[in-house]
Design goal:
The complex is a heterodimer of chains A (288) and B (408).
Chain A lengths: L1 H18 L18 E6 L8 H10 L23 E7 L2 E7 L8 H5 L5 E3 L5 E3 L9 H5 L6 E2 L8 E2 L5 H5 L5 H5 L5 E5 H14 L19 E4 L20 H29 L11
Parallel strand pairs in A: 1-9
Antiparallel strand pairs in A: 1-8, 2-3, 4-5, 6-7
Helix pairs in contact in A: 1-8
Chain B lengths: L1 H24 L8 H23 L15 H13 L2 H11 L9 H16 L1 H5 L8 H4 L8 H28 L2 H9 L1 H21 L17 H27 L6 H36 L2 H4 L2 H27 L2 H25 L13 H24 L8 H4 L2
Helix pairs in contact in B: 2-16, 3-5, 3-15, 3-16, 4-5, 4-10, 4-11, 5-8, 5-16, 8-9, 8-10, 10-11, 11-12, 11-15, 12-14, 14-15
Classes of the chains: A alpha+beta (288), B mainly alpha (408).
Bound molecules: iron/sulfur cluster (SF4) (2 copies).
One iron/sulfur cluster (SF4) binds next to helix 4 of chain A.
Chain lengths: 288, 408
């Protein structure tokens, strides 16, 4: 039995190493020195649907040229060759444009899901994808509540495509290509706080034109992409069933339980083993 | 003088070991059995499809889409397959921890089955990876995505496979006649068992926790924050039903391998397991009921998905549970086996309902696997059975261990 116990202790050592597995990480950008997340504000009251932003995006990233335009009654979606897309709807306020792209969540589900940290919330705010780490498991796609990450299903070296807020350009002191291309003030780039202030200012200045709801201020724990809309976001088909809780919080309970299971279960099992060991000679009644 | 002799003896031994291994590679038993005739073409086709899949991308063989990124290969091969492999941890718990000697004769075959299931079904995860060459990143510690449930599950798969191999390894040593090594290996069993059970509890529930963040995508009748607990509890009776099912087939197919004593024990074992199954299924149903009441989903019952849910609960949990009870009471192997098969169907149904059928149930175009995905899945299962059979015919799994191994 002595040998068994020694082995058991050895196993416990391994178990200890595996404990690290269960440690949920904080939202990456929030620790250390305090930096504010950058974001983008999309104002659909000002947007005229010129598609300059779509074109700028495809040109920057070398995607095939865009040939379709937003049309009432049809829905366009982002894909592995399109990172941002506009749609248009006929509403009580006339034609209203909506936008689809990565929301750059403050606490992104995709990054929490990624087992290689390929999906990564940078300190600056953009959520980026790093090809040298990604193993293509697509768990980020399963987890993202906005269905943003797209996968190249027809490639032997597939990439995950999604908006990166032009992270490289930002790091070089620039601004995202789509924002730069917009001539109508419908897209703004700045820190999240600046953008929220600006958004509120616009709502206050023209309360009849804007709905009093900044989509992304609280949704999914807050997002980097903020949207101003003339109607309530749910009337425009934005996903409002996602609630205000951050998505990684959904798995936290489970992950927090992992270390305690590792600490509690093995001694318990060993204890039961010792307790039942000598019963072997008797015909044991099965108790489960 | 002595030394030369020793060297020569060593050389001789090495030679004979090689000869032995080579001879063991040859098939034993008939080649043209119905099983072989059916399974072989499927395995070959599966292999071809796997080549195409890596060459042309996942889209060439699967129906996966941007909205449904995980299909049959994850939902069935990995999530369901691993649930069925749960028999190994439950049985090691009963035999090594609770010291129920009665079940000892089937422990090896169950652990072997579990081990192979993990190698193949968890291995099927690799088929699904778009960029499999980066799979080493989370393993060698390049990048630990420690907040990811998938990270936890993948690591546990790996560690558990090692633990199971240690549990099974004495049989390999007996096959090779390695006495010293066998002694060391069997001394490690208890540690491996305890470690393995802990890992199993965590990754069986972890497979459910994988889907926690897909809250809006899974039908509310199947999504709740308790999926991990439900997955864990159901893995107990899923695994044991598999043990009953697989045991009954092995009993027929490998009849000659099983000693008189163990043939007799077979009925006793099935009988005992049926009670455990019925008990855990009762707990499982009760949990489901609580979750259902808590979620206030009455309105959803009178919909097609609601009927589907009721079918799963009544037809494939309640009914087999009653059959297990009944079979236990009247000591009927037949009813117990029927119950086991129904239970297994129910577990398949449940896992697929969470991962495939109820996933994006509201989409206009539903995901339906291609014949190629089904074929690869079957190929994986058949390959596992082939290897299983290969091992059973050679190592003392169902057979009693050689006399020298019994001495202590
Ligand atoms: S919207 Fe989706 S992809 Fe974008 S940061 Fe949030 S979770 Fe990630
Ligand atoms: S597909 Fe890549 S980026 Fe997405 S979770 Fe998997 S490893 Fe991470």
């Amino acid at each position: 039995m002595g040998l068994d116990r020694r082995n058991f202790l050895k196993t416990m050592g391994v178990a200890g190493a595996a404990l690290a597995v269960g440690k949920p990480s904080q939202a990456a950008g929030n620790k250390g020195k305090y930096t504010e997340f950058y974001g983008i504000l999309y104002d659909s009251v000002k947007c005229i649907g010129c598609q300059n932003c779509e074109v700028a995006c495809t040109e920057t990233y070398g995607f095939p040229e865009i040939t379709d335009t937003p049309l009432v009654g049809t829905e366009r979606h982002t894909s592995e060759t399109r990172r941002t897309i506009l749609n248009v709807q006929e509403t009580s306020r006339g034609e209203v444009y909506t936008r689809e792209q990565c929301m750059h969540c403050n606490e992104p589900a995709c990054a929490a899901a990624c087992l290689t940290q390929a999906m990564y919330k940078t300190e600056e705010g953009p959520v980026i994808w790093r090809g040298d780490k990604c193993m293509g498991c697509r768990y980020c796609m399963v987890s993202c509540p906005f269905d943003v990450p797209k996968f190249e299903y027809h490639s032997s070296n597939p990439k995950i495509e999604k908006c990166t807020m032009c992270y490289e350009r930002i790091m070089e002191g620039g601004i995202p290509a789509c924002v730069e291309s917009c001539g109508f003030d419908a897209l703004l780039f700045g820190t999240r706080r600046e953008l929220l202030t600006e958004a509120r200012k616009r709502i206050c200045a023209e309360p009849t034109k804007y709905s009093d709801h900044i989509f992304g201020e609280k949704e999914a724990g807050g997002t980097g992409l903020l949207m101003l809309t003339p109607l309530r976001p749910q009337e425009l088909g934005y996903r409002t069933n996602i609630g205000n809780e951050s998505y990684p919080a959904l798995t936290k309970g489970f992950l927090f339980a992992v270390p305690s299971v590792f600490v509690l279960i093995p001694p318990l099992l060993l204890g039961i083993h010792e307790a039942t060991k000598n019963k072997g000679s008797k015909q044991e009644e099965e108790e489960v | 003088m002595n030394q030369i002799n020793l060297a020569a003896a060593n050389e001789n031994q090495a030679k004979s070991t090689w000869k032995f291994l080579l001879s063991e590679l040859k098939p034993k038993g008939k080649i043209f059995t119905p099983f072989n005739i059916i399974s072989f073409p499927i395995m070959i086709t599966g292999l071809v499809l796997i080549v195409i899949r890596f060459w042309k991308g996942l889209g060439a063989v699967t129906n996966l889409s941007q909205e449904v990124p995980w299909g049959l290969w994850i939902g069935f091969d990995v999530v369901t397959g691993v649930a069925f492999a749960g028999g190994a941890y439950v049985l090691t718990f009963m035999v090594y921890i609770l010291n129920m000697k009665k079940y000892h004769s089937i422990i090896r075959v169950t652990v072997l089955n579990g081990f192979l299931a993990y190698v193949f079904y968890a291995g099927a995860l690799l088929l699904d990876l778009g960029r499999p060459w980066n799979v080493i990143n989370p393993i060698i510690g390049n990048n630990f995505g420690t907040s990811s449930v998938l990270f936890l599950v993948a690591w546990h798969f790996l560690l558990y496979m090692i633990a199971q191999f240690i549990e099974f390894s004495p049989a390999v040593a007996e096959w090779l006649g390695a006495k010293r090594i066998r002694k060391i290996l069997s001394a490690m069993t208890l540690g491996a068992v305890i470690f393995g059970i802990t890992l199993s509890i965590l990754h069986q529930s972890g497979l459910g926790a994988l889907y926690m963040m897909a809250r809006e995508k899974i039908h509310p009748l199947w999504y709740s924050e308790f999926i991990p607990i439900l997955f864990f509890v159901s893995s107990i009776f899923a695994g044991l039903s598999m043990v009953i099912f697989e045991g009954s087939i092995s009993y027929k197919v490998f009849f000659g391998q099983i000693s008189e004593k163990n043939r007799h024990a077979h009925h006793e074992i099935i009988h005992g397991l049926s009670r455990v199954c019925a008990g855990t299924m009762f707990a499982y149903l009760f949990l489901h009921l609580l979750i259902f009441l808590h979620g206030r989903h009455w309105g959803l019952i009178n919909t097609p998905m609601g009927y589907w849910y009721l079918l799963e609960m009544f037809g494939f949990v309640l009914l087999p549970m009653l059959l297990f009870f009944y079979g236990y009471r009247v000591k009927s192997g037949l009813w117990i086996r029927i119950a086991a098969i129904l239970t297994m169907l129910g577990v398949i149904l449940n896992r697929l309902n969470v991962t495939v059928i109820g996933f994006r149930w509201d989409m206009p175009v539903r995901y339906i696997p291609t014949w190629m995905e089904v074929c690869v899945t079957l190929a994986v299962i058949f390959t596992e059975i082939w290897i299983f059979r290969w091992v059973i015919r050679r190592m003392p799994v169902l057979r009693d261990p050689p006399a020298w191994a019994k001495s202590h």
